[in-house]
Design goal:
Layout (H helix, E strand, L loop, with lengths): L1 H50 L2 H7 L10 H18 L4 H48 L4 H20 L6 H10 L2 H4 L10 E5 L8 E4 L5 E4 L7 H10 L4 E2 L1 E4 L4 H4 L2 H7 L1 E2 L2 E3 L7 H13 L3 E3 L5 E2 L6 E6 L13 E6 L2 E5 L5 H10 L6 E3 L11 H7 L3 E4 L12 H9 L3 E4 H4 L2 E5 L4 E3 L21 E7 L4 E6 L5 E2 L4 E4 L4 E4 L5 E2 L4 E6 L10 E5 L11 E4 L5 E5 L1
Parallel strand pairs: 3-5, 4-6, 5-7, 7-8, 12-13, 13-14, 14-15, 24-25
Antiparallel strand pairs: 1-2, 1-16, 2-3, 9-10, 10-11, 11-12, 16-17, 18-19, 19-24, 20-23, 21-22, 21-26, 26-27
Length: 560
């Protein structure tokens, strides 16, 4: 009997050992399977992480980075995550805790981000559809109670979308979604209580200065003309009720664009300055910077491709700004300002090369074009005009200017596509008003029949520009003729900085004599051989053409 009990006990131990071994193998198999499923889910989630990255989407979907998402990848991630969760649930202890942590951190996080992204763009697309339906309702009966209620409801839904965006990962992604589905901007011009945007093109002679007053009363001043135009700009701003400038844009450091800003800065509170970042050695530019520093005005260098938030009803995008360029004009800040269905394109003095780059990167179509570089042939190429397709073209230049602005090629090019031309030299100040849907121009279209011409260089002139030393800031002029020349009313022009030296009244350069026009810290004033322009630097060391212009406005000589 004892022997039987002993054998039975041994058999039971063997069975127990075998069961434990099988259970151990089974547990090990469950863990290995769970690890495999978790790794699969992590691989899918890693790809999904990139799919919801704005930088990646801008490369993959350049024309519409905020749109659909790769739903196949999203569903693969979801199914892999659910399978892994189910497998991990069969485990216990440390193994379960570790794998569950990996799932939560490396899979669940990106799945939730993708879900938030999908929810936001789904809601945004529905909102856009409702907004399009509302436009049709507005066109039928813009002033009815039903239309006003529908507009208010859309704005309420838009605010809900804004709240939903807090769940979307990444500020740049949230901003991009908000930009696309901003209903207030989309419906600009369809507001039953609509407001207007006013674009003023101020007559500053041979220069540029533009004022924009947004629908919600924000003010933008783009450039201020040359120094002599400063008082005119200040007077005009006060006349239209401006007391504060929310954003002052300095497109580039040429004197005919920033010269008048000194008066503006001294007469108005300026909240922020947006600058091209292009440096210059001219006295005008240095005074401009010194005044900004003295007043401690916030200063920002424009970044190409960036958007400017100023008025929620208006979109402002920087299409060009190149502080690293050698040429001032090339560095021009170019802005596209959109209110509803109406676009304004302010091009500064950007040249043909920059125009081509903008066409390749951005949508440059605009109803209103501030024509580049005062109508010079360095801007407004045929390819650019074909893409912009402006209905209104504003030309800002001085009457009878010595540059020949605007050139007939540009004028005819704009007329050929059916654009209405407006000239500050002919009409004075020009205002374009829009409710975001339609627009009105205060002036009468200019036929372009009398463009100024530049008198040819007189090869028989007796005065020669001998040299321009950009390092020592000395310009040498010689009278090679046999008669004395009275230089009253004559001018020496630094083309790059658009700086002008006026010769003293009754100054006479004798036949065969030479005069040195000096500037910079070593400038000398020893008439009649040395004349002092200024103690500041004038000439751009990287290249600065000089022009000698007589008292009739004729360009007598030039050094490039």
């Amino acid at each position: 009997m004892k022997k039987f009990v002993s054998i039975f006990f041994i058999l039971m131990l063997l069975v127990s050992s075998l069961f434990t071994s099988v259970t151990s193998v089974s547990a090990s198999g469950n863990y290995n399977q769970a690890v495999k499923l978790v790794n699969t889910a992590k691989n899918y989630a890693g790809a999904l992480k990139w799919e919801i990255s704005l930088e990646y989407r801008q490369t993959k979907y350049p024309k519409n980075p905020i749109s659909y998402i790769d739903m196949k990848l999203y569903n693969l991630t979801k199914n892999a995550m659910l399978a892994a969760e189910k497998s991990v649930a069969t485990l216990s202890g440390t193994q379960k805790a570790v794998l569950k942590g990996e799932l939560d951190n490396n899979v669940g996080t990106y799945y939730k981000r993708a879900q938030a992204f999908i929810d936001a763009i789904t809601a945004g697309e529905k909102l856009l559809k409702r907004a399009n339906d509302y436009k049709a309702q507005y066109n039928l009966n813009p002033n009815s109670i039903e239309t006003k209620n529908a507009y208010s409801a859309l704005l309420a839904e838009s605010r809900k979308l804004n709240i939903m965006l807090y769940r979307v990962y990444g500020k740049s992604t949230r901003d991009a979604i908000l930009e696309k589905y901003n209903i207030e901007k989309f419906l600009a011009g369809y507001n039953p209580d609509s407001k207007e945007l006013k674009a003023h093109f101020i007559d500053v002679g041979q220069g540029d200065s533009s004022l924009i007053i947004t629908p919600n009363g924000k003010t933008i001043l783009i450039d201020g003309g040359k120094d002599s135009a400063g008082e005119k700009v200040v007077s005009y701003l006060k006349q239209v009720g401006v007391s504060t400038i929310d954003l002052l844009v300095s497109t580039h450091p040429d004197a005919d664009h920033i010269g008048g800003l000194e008066d503006v800065l001294n007469n108005f509170t300026v909240k922020k300055i947006l600058d091209s970042g292009k440096t210059h050695t001219s006295l005008t530019y240095l005074d401009y910077l010194a005044l900004i520093d003295a007043k401690n005005i916030p200063f920002e260098v424009a970044k190409e491709g960036s958007s400017i938030s100023l008025d929620n009803a208006v979109q402002i995008k920087v299409l060009n700004s190149a502080s690293g360029t050698e040429d001032n004009n090339e560095s021009s800040v170019v802005l596209k300002i959109t209110y509803g269905e109406i676009d304004f394109l302010y091009t500064g003095d950007a040249e043909v090369e920059q125009e081509a780059e903008m066409v390749a990167k951005y949508d440059v179509e605009a109803e209103v074009l501030k024509v580049g570089h005062h109508g010079s042939d360095t801007s407004t190429s045929q390819a650019f005009v074909n893409e912009v397709k402006p209905k209104v073209s504003i030309l800002s230049y001085g009457k009878d200017n010595t540059y020949g602005h605007p050139v007939s090629t540009v004028v005819n090019r704009l007329k050929a596509i059916g654009s209405n031309l407006y000239s500050t030299a002919v009409s004075g100040d020009i205002k374009v008003t829009t409710n975001g849907k339609t627009y009105n121009v205060s002036a009468t279209p200019w036929t372009g029949g009398t463009t100024p011409t530049v008198p040819p260089i007189q090869p028989t002139g007796t005065l020669d520009l001998v040299s321009v030393n950009l390092d020592t800031e000395v310009v040498t002029i010689k009278n090679t003729g046999s008669t004395d020349v009275n230089m009253t009313g004559w001018k020496l022009v630094s083309v790059e900085g658009n700086q002008t030296y006026n010769f003293p009244s009754n100054y006479v350069l004798k036949a065969g004599a030479t005069v040195y026009i000096t500037s910079g810290p070593n400038a000398q004033d020893k008439s009649p051989t040395h004349l002092k322009w200024t103690g500041s630097y004038i000439w751009n060391n990287s290249g600065d053409p000089a022009q000698l212009i007589n008292n009739q406005g004729v360009k007598v000589d030039e050094i490039r």
